[in-house]
Amino acid sequence: MSHIHDTPPPSSPSLPTSISSPPSPTIIKPTELSPKTLRRMLHHESDVLIVGAGILGTALAITLARPPHSRSVTLLEKSLKEPDRIVGELLQPGGVSALKDLGLEECLEGIDSVRVKGYEVIYYGQGVEIGYPGNTVGQRSEGDVAGGKNLRREGRSFHHGRFIRRLRELATKEQNVSVVESTVTEVVKCEHTGHILGVQCLNSCGKNVYFGQLTVLADGYASKFRKQYISRSVVSKSRFWGLELIDAVLPKPLHGHVILGDGAPVLLYQIGSRETRALVDVPEGLDTASTKNGGVKRHLREVVLPSLPKCVKPSFERALDEGKLRSMPNSFLPPSVNRFPGMVMLGDAMNMRHPLTGGGMTVAFNDVVLLKELLSPEVVPDLGNTKLVLKQMEKFHWRRKGLTSVINILAQALYSLFAANDPQLKALQLGCFRYFQCGGQCVDGPVGLLAGIIRRPLLLFYHFFSVALLSIWLVLSESPLYTMPLTLISSVSILYKACVVLSPFVLSELKN
């Protein structure tokens, strides 16, 4: 049975059915519990021990606890209060499909979530719609075709905390899951073999130790364990500053908005029937956001506000006056192969990309879908078989790349273009906008990649360099004949810049 406590009680526990409800007064006799449940609750021993009840950790706990896996799972989280974050609020269509594959689609209901049909890209006041495609490269999901008509995919947006609460509520209802509020302080290793056996926790009742045949560290973007097990460093060159707009009028309802101009991009998307999230990218060292020039708030008022669509300005200004401004770093961390016996690191603790394209949750849920297959009892009967588990995790690293490499590379490359700060990048930014204006496959291809629907990295390269060639053509066609020598040099510089933008991220995906 599931339960939530600062620390599990030493004897027969009472078992609440959801996070928000108090413990039930009904006492369950130990004889009525399965041996696995007794071992998990009384001796803190599980098949799987998961640190972090976020998007990936909670979904993985539910998936591994359900048949055919039926693993005994302990899910540890330092705070079970409903989180309040400014990212993780838009789930792409590929993430919605993965959620359905996991049987978790009910988490999207009852939280005032909003349908998302695609994006509106606004370039210096001029807009172009880039809607999500329908059936793509032979893939089909339930509801794509109805009445003989090809329907386009949809994403969902919502308050992050409400979605997490629904996930955690489902976890507490799983017979094979114990959800425990406790702060993990360190991992526990075998002194002789170096295998990771579990974790040590600290709460109001003192120290506790939890053991698992497999320990999963999924403690998020600010992971306290990352440096111990991953050699790569997190790179963060900007922050998103977020506001919640009330009753904002958006140029294109049920669409995310990307606003491009002289500065870094601004994102707008609904997260509820009345609420809209505004995210403003502020690069490190930006002069107009420096303390000497009045700080970020003045930057938002004097630089960002004038660049917004007229219909959005009143609600943005009201939110700015209320002063509820929060920020979060925009981080990049290439994926790594898990090589430590007894432990795997997953989610944002192991792999991050710029949140511009909203791909994080889509990656997380698709990772769980893949792990559901690779760690199935038929393939891995005993999770204590560390050699077999590590072998499966190496397969996981390479098999996930069909989707994750596309989302990782696209997020970083698009941010470089959308936050253009030199002439070559500005030319590529214009080329990207003009490419979208061509419509057809010039929209369906890139947006299908961004949405997690198309899983073909080579198609990403095709569209990216098509944008580069279009950018070069625009420069050539708009330049006077007498400047042709300089224009040719500029064209070569644009192509070189495109290679410089894309190559580091491609190489990072090819490494172990």
From TrEMBL:
One GO process term, biological-process aspect: ergosterol biosynthetic process
Span of domain Squalene epoxidase: 212-488
Reaction it catalyzes: squalene + reduced [NADPH--hemoprotein reductase] + O2 = (S)-2,3-epoxysqualene + oxidized [NADPH--hemoprotein reductase] + H2O + H(+)
Necessary cofactors: FAD
Biased composition (Low complexity): 14-29
E.C. number(s) listed in UniProt: 1.14.14.17
DNA repair keyword on record: no
Pathway the protein acts in: Steroid metabolism; ergosterol biosynthesis
Keywords noted in UniProt: Endoplasmic reticulum, FAD, Flavoprotein, Lipid biosynthesis, Lipid metabolism, Membrane, Microsome, Oxidoreductase, Steroid biosynthesis, Steroid metabolism, Transmembrane, Transmembrane helix
One GO location term (cellular component): endoplasmic reticulum membrane
Localisation per UniProt entry: Endoplasmic reticulum membrane; Microsome membrane
Major location category of this protein: endoplasmic reticulum
Membrane topology, as annotated: Multi-pass membrane protein
SUPFAM superfamilies: FAD/NAD(P)-binding domain
Region Disordered, annotated ranges: 1-29
Highest rank taxon of the organism: Eukaryota
Chain segments annotated as transmembrane: 48-65, 458-476, 488-507
GO molecular function annotation: flavin adenine dinucleotide binding; squalene monooxygenase activity
Enzyme class: oxidoreductase
Sequence similarity: Belongs to the squalene monooxygenase family.
Function comment: Catalyzes the stereospecific oxidation of squalene to (S)-2,3-epoxysqualene, and is considered to be a rate-limiting enzyme in steroid biosynthesis.
Name of the protein: Squalene monooxygenase
Provenance organism: Letharia lupina
